Amino acid sequence: MKDINIVKHKMSRIMAMNHARLFRSRIVGNDEVSSVFRRTFAAGAKKKGAKGGAAGDAPKASILSKEVKSSTVVGANILKEGADPKVLADSEYPDWLFHLIDKRPALSELRRRNVETLPYEDLKRFVKLDNRARIKENNSIKAKN
Predict the structure, then answer these.
(1) Domain segments of the chain: what residues?
(2) What is the DSSP string of the chain?
(3) Sign of dihedral through CA atoms 123, 129, 135, 141?
(4) In angstroms, how far is the first alpha carbon of the chain from the final one?
(5) In the chain, what is the greatest distance between 2 CA atoms, to the nearest angstrom?
(6) Where the protein is mainly located, per its record (predicted)?
(7) pLDDT at 49
(8) Are residues 130 and 105 in contact, defined by beta-carbon separation less than 8 angstroms?
(9) C-alpha–C-alpha distance, residues 92 and 136, integer Å
(10) What's the CA angle centered on 41, arms 37 and 45, to 5 degrees?
(11) Residue 46 predicted with pLDDT over 70
């Protein structure tokens, strides 16, 4: 009796797989598959062996005037409706903004300094860079073995 149930189970699985294949071929027929994988070319594409550069390959001159470029942050608008923000005077920006471009010390320089006298921000940077260097070193040792 067990053997008959096993055979029935296997037959039902085979039939289910065949039905799935049948439905798949019905849903995506050969015409659709060939149209999906058919290679097409763009209109006006450069023909093979044509000499000389296309007219559209040359760099185009900017259509924005120098006044607009100097008074607005061109390309900073991320919204569909809106305009690029205007450039403000330095006094209208927060103080922390200008410290973003300050050079921060490298790990080698931080290792030369006394850790106990480091400012908090430099200490955080030292711990982060030191951990990163140790992880890289351990990974390279594991890769060699």
Answers:
(1) 105-144
(2) -HHHHHHHHHHHHHHHHHHHHHHHHHHS-HHHHHHHS-----TTPPPTT--S--GGGSPPPP-S-HHHHHHB-TT---SSS--PPBPPPGGGS-HHHHGGGS----HHHHHHS-GGGS-HHHHHHHHHHHHHHHHHHHHHHHHH-
(3) negative
(4) 56
(5) 91
(6) mitochondrion
(7) 58
(8) no
(9) 43
(10) 165
(11) no
Q: Which two tokens stand for residue 120?
A: 């908090």
Task: Report the pLDDT value the prediction gives residue 43, as an integer from 0 to 100.
Answer: 61
- pLDDT band at residue 41, thresholds of 50, 70 and 90? low
Find the length of the chain. Answer: 145
Buried b (16+ CB within 10 A) or exposed e, 49-73: eeeeeeeeeeeeeeeeeeeeeeebe
pTM above 0.85, yes or no: no
Report the candidate in 112, 140, 141 with the shortest Cα–Cα distance to residue 126.
Answer: 112
Tokens found for residue 83: 């305009």
115-140 burial by CB neighbour count: b if 16+ within 10 A, else e? eeeeeeebeebbeebeeeeeeeeeee
Q: How far apart are CA 123 and CA 117, in angstroms?
A: 9
